[in-house]
Amino acid sequence: MKATQNPPTTGTVTPADLLRMAALYLRRHGWHQGTYYAPTTDIPTPPACAAGAIRIACAGRPVEQFAQLDGDTIADYVTALDVLVDHLDATAPVFFVDEDGYLLDEHTSPYSWNDDPTRTAEQVVTALEAAATEWDRLHTAGGENR
């Protein structure tokens, strides 16, 4: 390797890492409901919803549209969001049933869950961290990926 080359990085960023980064982002910059990010033009780190914070953890900046992401970043985002959904399905299920009693969606919507008027920022941060812990429990052995 030449002295001007960057050394290879070790380790991979897991969905658990992204969820923890999203939780940290919310603690530092604030939580938001209704849209991915609070409408503001004067700060580069706006308050975010759970999904918006995961997008920031994946992309390193607020991202409104999938078209603004590359394929690997989209895959990381979707995987981390799926891990959160799995956690919510197990711990705080919110299912939508139509007027005839038919289940409309078999998974908890992280968007509806985030935007519940009774939801608190601490609940969102706690859920992100708990989902990360659960992912680690299922996918690592002694600190190494399985």
Count of alpha/pi helices: 5
Query: What is the CA-atom radius of gyration, in angstroms?
Result: 17 Å
Strand content: under 5%
Task: List the strand order in the largest sheet.
Answer: 1-2
Distance between the termini: 30 Å
General form? globular
Instruction: Give the tally of β-strands.
Output: 2
**Secondary structural class:** mainly alpha
Structural domain tally:
1
Poorly predicted segments:
none
Considering DSSP H and I runs of 4 or more, what fraction of the residues is helical? Answer: 40-55%
Q: What is the averaged pLDDT score?
A: 87
What order do the helices and strands follow? HHHHHEE
Largest sheet: 2 strands, antiparallel
Describe this structure in words.
- The protein has 146 residues and is mostly helical.
- The protein has one domain.
- The chain is 49% helix and 3% strand.
- The protein has five helices and two strands.
- It has helices at residues 15-29, 50-59, 71-91, 110-115, 121-139; strands at residues 140-141, 144-145.
- A two-stranded antiparallel sheet has the order 1-2.
- Helix 2 packs antiparallel against helix 3 and helix 3 crosses helix 5.
- The longest helix is centred in the middle third of the chain and has 21 residues, at 71-91.
- The protein starts with 14 loop residues before the first helix and ends with a strand.
- InterPro entries: DUF6197.
